[in-house]
Amino acid sequence: MWPRLFPHPSRFPRLLFADREGRIYDHPYLLAMGLSGFDVVLPEREDFIPLPPGSALYVLPERYPVGYDPEAGKPEILYENPYRPGEPAYALAAYLAPAHTQLYLAPYVEAREGLPPLPLFSYAACGFYRGKFWATAFRSDFDHRQEVRFFDENRIEREAKRFESLYANNRLVRHLIRNCVRRYRCPAARNFVLRRWEAPVPTSPSCNARCLGCLSSQEEGGPHIAQERISFAPEPHEIAEAMVPHLKQAPRAIVSFGQGCEGEPLLQGKLLWEAIKLMRRETSRGTINLNTNASLPEEVERLRTAGLDSIRVSLASARQRYYEAYFRPKGYGLGEVRESIRRMKRRGGFVSLNLFVFPGLTDEEEEFRALCELAALGVDYIQLRNHAIDPLWYLKRINFKPEGNCLGIKSLVKRLAQEIPRLRFGYFNPPLR
Ligand code: SF4
Fold first, then answer.
1. Engineered SS bond to 276: which of 306, 322, 332, 340, CB 3.0-4.6 Å?
2. CB–CB of 160/194 below 8 Å?
3. Probe ligand 1: pick from 204, 210, 212, 214, max atoms within 8 Å of CB?
4. Ligand 1 mean position to 211 CA, how many Å?
5. Atom number, ligand 1, closest to the C-alpha of residue 229
6. Ligand 1 centroid to 218 CA: how many Å?
7. Would you list the DSSP string of 223-254?
8. pTM (2 d.p.)
9. What one-character-per-residue DSSP string does 322-370 give?
């Protein structure tokens, strides 16, 4: 029986699915549902927004979609393509464009045991309505630094060539152009050659954690890596040569250590210290930021005294058991992370959390309380990122035990803002100077 308070089913996005060839269909009557932890739920109508430009739709191989049957009043697993009887139907998910945060994941049922994990993307719930694709999400940041409409391919390649000759002997610039701009099409590296907004500064070939969702290092049987890890540590003068002009000239300039194509930058503390000193000797303009697992508080404090403006602390969960199950840290834990935040704040620095939003885990009541505790150490900003990981594989790997009282992602943000009014929310590192 259709929920009384819900708008008529005809006003709801219908279930999307795909066939073996990847052709996409909308179901004749099943409605789009969402996944929250292990629970398959019917999102509110207003949870759906038109699929943002720059998003992608991914077919989930050997995974059956789940839709809501408004007549029967219950979810239904779709094993077969109703338009091609005898053929399997595969689930579909939305990989949201940057600056948009997922409210629900795409629900699916695995066709067999032991499926290899899905690639390291986020998988938001999606549907079809009035000729358009929709997804359960909201715009969490109005900064347009990674909007596809602002990336002119020809101009990027022209500037990349110019940078190659301008910095012919600079290994960092060579890495950024050959790998990040041309191979991985990294938006930050593309903004670097366009001399605007946030530029990436990878420095570390090694790490002191083994994240289940690491983009640059994975063990046998894990998801495929998304980027090769940088194989060398640039020199301080190479970093300064490449980044000082960016700090001096780029609008809303930020240079950020700690990228997907490297390990943990704090392990290169001495190099970062010298590079920051060199950059700040040349200019006080722009923001010098560090994306980090915050494992080494002494290094964080030393870099702050050298001129580091902000740190962004990666966080899959503020609860000890899930934090450790995901990061699998070597020689540090949440205690060191907290101490890094304290020391950065004690020295007047800016602290963001890079929160990997995972509906059903991130918005549990217990997680909310743990996030409040961490934020009360002085956190200024929470970046609401979509956790890029195979949902069911991840929950099994961290031995997730649902509490059963989820707030909803939007309500979580509202409650955090009520609890700690100075907290700001977004998606990207904010420019501070
Ligand atoms: S901290 Fe970063 S580099 Fe290290 S394992 Fe985790 S994701 Fe990978």
1. 306
2. no
3. 214
4. 5
5. 3
6. 10
7. PPPSSPPP-S---HHHHHHHHHHHHHHSTT-E
8. 0.96
9. HHHHHH--SS--HHHHHHHHHHHHHTT-EEEEEEEE-TTTTTBHHHHHH
Distance (Å) from CA 296 to ligand 1 centroid: 14
Q: What is the pLDDT along the chain (433 residues), one digit of tens a residue?
A: 566 566 677 889 999 999 999 999 999 999 999 999 999 999 999 999 999 999 999 999 999 999 999 999 999 999 999 999 999 999 999 999 999 999 999 999 999 999 999 999 999 999 999 999 999 999 999 999 999 999 999 999 999 999 999 999 999 999 999 999 999 999 999 999 999 999 999 999 999 999 999 999 999 999 999 999 999 999 999 999 999 999 999 999 999 999 999 999 999 999 999 999 999 999 999 999 999 999 999 999 999 999 999 999 999 999 999 999 999 999 999 999 999 999 999 999 999 999 999 999 999 999 999 999 999 999 999 999 999 999 999 999 999 999 988 999 999 999 999 999 999 999 999 999 9
CA of 209 to the centre of ligand 1 (A): 6
Per-residue pLDDT tens digits for 127-185: 999 999 999 999 999 999 999 999 999 999 999 999 999 999 999 999 999 999 999 99
For residue 313, report the distance from its CA to the centre of ligand 1, in Å. Answer: 11
Mutate which of 204, 206, 208, 217 for ligand 1? The one with the most ligand atoms within 8 Å of its CB, which is 217
Question: Environment class of residue 274 by beta-carbon count within 10 Å: exposed (0-12), middle (13-18) or buried (19+)?
Answer: middle
Q: Which residues contact 219 (CB under 8 A, 6 or more apart)?
A: 210
Of 167, 174, 226, 166, the residue nearest 202 (C-alpha): 174
Q: Whose CA is nearest to atom 6 of ligand 1?
A: 211
Q: Which domains does the chain have, with CATH numbers?
A: 9-139 (no CATH), 148-426 (3.20.20.70)
Ligand 1 atom with the smallest distance to the CA of 213 is 7
CA of 210 to the centre of ligand 1 (A): 6
Question: From the CA of 332, how far away is ligand 1's center (Å)?
Answer: 13
Q: Cβ atoms within 10 A of the Cβ of 178, count?
A: 12
Residue ID of nearest Cα to ligand 1 atom 3: 263
Ligand 1 site: residues with CB under 6 angstroms? 207, 209-211, 214, 216-217, 263-264, 293
> For residues 186 and 191, what is the distance between their CA atoms, to the nearest angstrom?
9
